[in-house]
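Recap from last week: sequence in, structure out.
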Amino acid sequence: MTITDMINVFDMQQRKGFLMFVENRYKLDFHVDLLVSPMNLEHQLKQLEKSARQLDLTSNERKEYDTAIRDYLFNFLDELEGKNSWVADSEPSKEIYDFPITENGYKLEDLLRLYERSVNNTGLQPASGGHLGYIPGGGIPLAGYGDLIAAITNKYSGIYFGNPGAIRLENHLIDWTAKQFGFTGEYGGNLTTGGSIGNLIAIVSARDAHCIKGKDFETTVIYGSSQMHHSLNKAIRIAGLGECIYRNIPLKENYHLDTNFLSHQIEKDKLKGLKPFLIIGSVGTTDTGIVDDLDKLSEISQQNNCWFHVDGAYGGYFYLIDELKDKFKGIEKADSLVIDPHKGLFLPYGTGMVLVKDRKAMLHSHYYTANYMQDAYKAPDEWSPADVSPELSRNFRGLRMWLPLMVHGLKPFKDAILEKYLLTKYAYQKLKETPYIEVGKEHELSVQTFRFWKENTSDENLNKLNEKILEGLHNDGRIFISSTRIEGIYTLRFAILSFRTHKREIDLILEMMEEQAVIFGLKK
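Predicted structure tokens:
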């Protein structure tokens, strides 16, 4: 038997050790080809295949893991109502670092227990009906099943050529949504990760449709308000428009953008030789939940050849409620509209949508080709997500929206939205009846502002009082609410949008507030 024959019966580690022994013992220099001879290579490939196949679970492993994960999730859902909505203690999360990534991994059961301790039982519990802070995300179970199907079947949803069904499913959702908001003609859209990317896509499309170049920045004007979401300011900067003139239009007493002031400001700007470009309106501001006068804003936009963008990430889907449609008059005239199904349709985080009235504007800004993609450009009239957004690689997020809508139908969604609106009305009435509460303007959608109040106390001291009370509510943790500042006033707020929030949760937070009022001497 030759040395090569001897080597070929060893595995890779044994071969390396044997060669090192022979080299050191006999001072020989073996050629590296001994490690990759044809017979040797085939043996190595078999060993690597055997190891790699661990990533593709066996039938028994799939059943075992499915049972363990299903039991964990079902237990989570069954116990969710009794869980706190906020856990202030972040110490358990440090245990994550005690589990380094290793060559051989860990048992699934151990990792699920780690997740429960370090992730699920720390911080905010957005799946809870007690999440009344910020703007709650959703997480309906069927959306999770949609994600599971999408992830395991792993369909590529960037280009039509890759999977026509995936693209048509998402385009079907975009088409349905656009028609709900009264869009007609050659509109386009994209399922995004959220309002931030949606706003960016819309603003880049607007920039290019109006041929705004670098040389134009110093004379180009954008109009918004202090109540618009900060993701819009971010999108303006990322889109390269940070050097444009930005007009922060004042608000009326009810926090709506002052359209009269806007009209006069535009006239002043035109007299100075400036170019009005973009007007931004809001449908459900984060702070106060107001809806701007969209009809008037669209009229001003048309008169001045401006792009009219509407940020409806939070409040857009309230338009599905017949009783509330009057608040949205003019939304169908928007040049672009952002809405978040992970808010108003209660889907998991990472589900946004942008609609643009002129699809060509989206294509002009985002469509690119590449040599290696030449086979993919053989599509019919369907547009692909990669053609109208920054993403080429993306997850197939359409199933998380399509599956729940198709199984449940639209009615439970509409009823849940209406319930949140009426729960906010209920909370407003209760707050008005409470002597130690100063309630803000009555809600328009499902955000209600208020603060604890004490006679003969300055605003500065009231700010400190409300900050301490919120800390007490957070330490309690059963229900989570948040705060903001409006014109320098520290303000507490309910944001009622979780599909699991019902009258029980509103009564509970009111009870918790009463307990804090006793602690701070506001009620005896």
